[in-house]
Design a protein that fits this description.
The structure holds three protein chains of three kinds. Chain A is an all-alpha fold. Chain A is built from five helices and no strands. Chain A is elongated and about 65 Å long. Classes of the chains: A mainly alpha, B mainly alpha, C mainly alpha.
Amino acid sequence: MFELIIGHYDYLFIVVLITIGLYGMIIKKNLVKKVIGMSIFQSAIILFYISSAVKSDATVPILVDELSTAEVITYINPLPHALMLTAIVVGVATVGVAFALLVLIYKRYNTLDEKELIERMK
Amino acid sequence: MKHGSTSPIILLLSRVISPYIMLFGMYVIFHGHYSPGGGFQGGAMLAASIILLRIALEEKVHQMHFNSKLGIPLGALGVLIFFGVGLISLLLGGYFLDYKLLPIPGYTPADLHSFGILFIELGIGLAVMSVLVSIYDNLLEDDDV
Amino acid sequence: MKIFSYLALLSLAALLIYAAMDLPSKGDTKALTNQEVSLTGSQVASSYYIKRSYTDANTPNIVTTIIADYRAFDTLGEEVVIFAAGIICYLLLRREKKSETRKH
């Protein structure tokens, strides 16, 4: 039981971050706070992929001395790092477009609160 | 911002630090082969050095540094550099983005792969920098601060 | 009404923790993603990239080789995504010169 917790403690932190992100997206009423919750949720998913790529007693995937005879067991898995670069940049683009839409909503309806917005849209 | 900051500490320090951030950003792009880094990371640092001046100074001065009209055309140029490297290989007989057919004389195919990676990182850095600065400019279009 | 949202959130968290106990431990060298040959006999992609990246591209950084040489097409798609986000922000937020009194 104790070994189970020691080996899986990083998944616990990731679930805490997912819960905080979903709390911000569902329960908060301000639109900017919902966008911030989405960004926190995305950081949790990126952390999940990166933490699944680690091997014990292995180093970062940059070849220093043994340039042509690299052993697979001494370098961590480089493929999730490459995939998460794309994910980070897509997150930046999404948050940028979300804030552009929020600026337009504020110019039109003069509020950023969810309940007042639904009232004024009727 | 339209009016700059009134505190002399901010005015002085932002103008002193911004060239060093830009230099470090270019270092991160060019050393993507030998250390962690590459196109996306260096492009974000270059954008940070330009946005620092936009926060601290007034409009007349920061438009002289990097004009707002240059945002989208430079982004299109960055995408065109990436596409151009791929199209050169396509026109010379290989498949798309095949680096060993680049027309640089006197290098082994492994070295030509290294040059292809460098050109692609330059295109990505340019596009990321100009798009981030352009998003900042458009979000603060009619601000009167 | 709000109590249902809180209960749903907590039950989702408990379900995720229960499902995460089956995943491999942190840093396990016997996990299936860290092997050299997969279960059906073909080679795992990560071990191919670690072994062959220096002879293919003369570059010590393996992650840069992956995103710019082996999977360069995905990086092209991603750059188009960034450029599209820039164009969208420009088109949504530009000011038109003399259309202050037009109503759509």
